Amino acid sequence: MKDRKLIGMKSHDCHVLMTHMIPIAIRGVLPENVRHTITKLCLFFNNIHSKVIDVEQLDKWQKDIYVTLCELEMYFPPSFFDIMVHLISHIIQEIKACGPVFLRYMYPFERYMSVLKGYVRNRHRPEGNIIEGYTSEEVIELCQGYVEGLDSVGIPKIRHSGRLDGHARVSFKTFSPSHEDLHDAHLVVLKHMTCLAPYVKEHMQMLRLTHPGKDDIWYIKTQNKELSKWMKRKVRETDVDEAVKRLGQGPDFIVDTYQGYDINGYTFYTRDQDKKSAVQNSGVTIIASTTEFNRQRCDTLIKIAKDSYSGVIEEIWDLDYHGFNIPLFKCKWVNDRTGVQVDKYGFTLVDLATHGYKSEPFIMARHVSQVFYVKDPSKPRYHIVLQGKRRIFGVHNVVNEDEYDHFDDLPPFSVDTEPVNYDNFMHTTNLRDDINGVYVDEE
User: Fold this and answer.
1) Cα separation, 436 vs 31, whole angstroms
2) One domain, residues 105 and 73
3) C-alpha span between 69 and 37 (Å, rounded)
4) Is the N end or the C end of the chain the one with fewer CB atoms within 10 Å?
């Protein structure tokens, strides 16, 4: 901190800084045109490292990076530009010839070099130590394949392995919630379980037949009040599956709670647990589909919109249905109307002090994704939302393509790559004046 330098960084550290941290760190500390150019450069690296690349976008990225490099020459001295900066212009041709960049990362090999260096015991003979250690591990691995109940001695077992369906981690407690909270949590389970979808749909149709002419909001509120009671009567009347019967009877009045939970390849903490930790794991987001109907004719569908909701976890519940458990998160949601903004760079800004949707705090744990909130340097009131990256474990458990798509990582930001007005550049203190530039307008 004394010299204000970053020392000892690996290539992956530089990659994370370029694609995530720098666009946030420079917000509000540089002139707008300089900040815009640097952010475009960071976006370029973010785009080329995507798991899925649209081939039709490559030519546009190539053109944009040429413009970005020219703009960098307007602001930075010649000593800034070396062969590494020039090589950026050749990355697109490399992608066209060799495929996506993430398939050719050097990070795994660099990490494995650390493993090989760990075999060295005698620095006078490092090569012999590495060969002996490597062959010994290979022999042990081969022998372990014929012995049951032994763990591998090579690559350590990933801690998320086998935890996609849920695994409690920290601070187990039990308590008796209020009747209203338990009813709200149980209602969320009833409305989101696949096996109960036909019954929930039947209940909604019955309400529309018995109370015609009401608007869609009235039907939803009425269903929320009566669905639990209707399900109990329905279970007694018909011969249904055992799981449906358990769900219809409701959960145990004693609820298990935790401060940490592993599910979907993420580790989630409550907000109170986050305060005790050096990492942030309490941020969540969910993309919900909202169905809008015509107010005059309630049966006329207008559109189905997908909205993103962000919040923090306050409590983690594990409802016991006497045969299986269902984890839920009780969250404090950000008010989308007053506490969410999207700036021109595509950053999503949220005001965590706002509190919206107080009547719907619960959400199924398997439906949420993890996000991180970084304080905005230019607007201290707001936090920037960054998507959490989940590694793909147990892909064989994925039942359809839509669920597999949830594993895709999303870029943290986007930026308008069109060049800004160059007429205003002459008034900036960052513009170089030792050369005469030539402006080329494309027809």
Assistant:
1) 22
2) yes
3) 9
4) C
CA triple 243-246-251, angle to 5 deg: 130
Q: Is residue 352 scored above 80 in pLDDT? A: yes
Please tell me the pTM assigned to this model. Answer: 0.74
What residues have CB less than 8 Å from 293, skipping those under 6 apart? 216, 299, 300, 301, 302
Q: Whole-angstrom Cα distance, residue 118 to residue 152?
A: 17
Same domain for 223 and 138, yes or no, is no
> Are 211 and 75 within one domain?
no
Domain boundary among 213, 230, 253: 253
pLDDT digits (tens, 9 = 90+) for 123-180: 888 889 999 999 998 888 888 778 777 666 666 666 656 556 677 777 888 889 998 8
In whole angstroms, give the CA distance from residue 327 to residue 257.
9
- Per the rule left: phi > 0, alpha: psi between -120 and 50, beta: everything else, 40 is alpha
Torsion sign over Cα 399, 402, 406, 407:
positive
Closest CA to 270 of 182, 327, 351, 331: 331
Spatial separation of the C-alpha atoms in residues 403 and 395, rounded to whole Å: 10
Q: Do 21 and 151 share a domain, yes or no?
A: yes
- Whether 69 and 188 map to the same domain: the answer is no
In a domain, 380, yes or no: no
Residue 94: helix, strand or coil by DSSP? helix
Assigned token pair, 136: 């010994």
Structural domains counted in the chain: 2
Residue 435 inside a domain? The answer is no
**Distance of alpha carbon 115 from alpha carbon 130, whole angstroms:** 9
Judged by DSSP in three states, 174 sits in: strand
Same-domain check for residues 153 and 181: no
Residues in the chain: 443
Is 354 a domain residue?
no
Domain boundary among 253, 283, 306: 253
Of 303, 286, 285, whose CA–CA distance to 294 is shortest?
303
Q: What does the pLDDT look like over 90-137, one tens digit per residue?
A: 999 999 999 988 888 888 888 888 889 989 988 888 889 999 999 998
Which structural domain, as residue segments, surrounds residue 235?
177-253
Distances (CA, A) of 199 to 74, 191, 246, 415: 65, 10, 14, 46
Instruction: Report the relative pairing of strands 383-387 and 260-263 from DSSP bridges.
Output: unpaired
Residue 88, in any domain of the structure? yes
Residues 128 and 13 in one domain: yes
CA atoms of 364 and 359, how far apart (whole Å): 15
Q: Do 43 and 97 have their domain in common?
A: yes
Angle between helices 91-98 and 32-48 (to 10 degrees): 10
CA-to-CA dists, residue 328 to 104, 192, 198, 266, 364, angstroms: 39, 12, 22, 14, 5
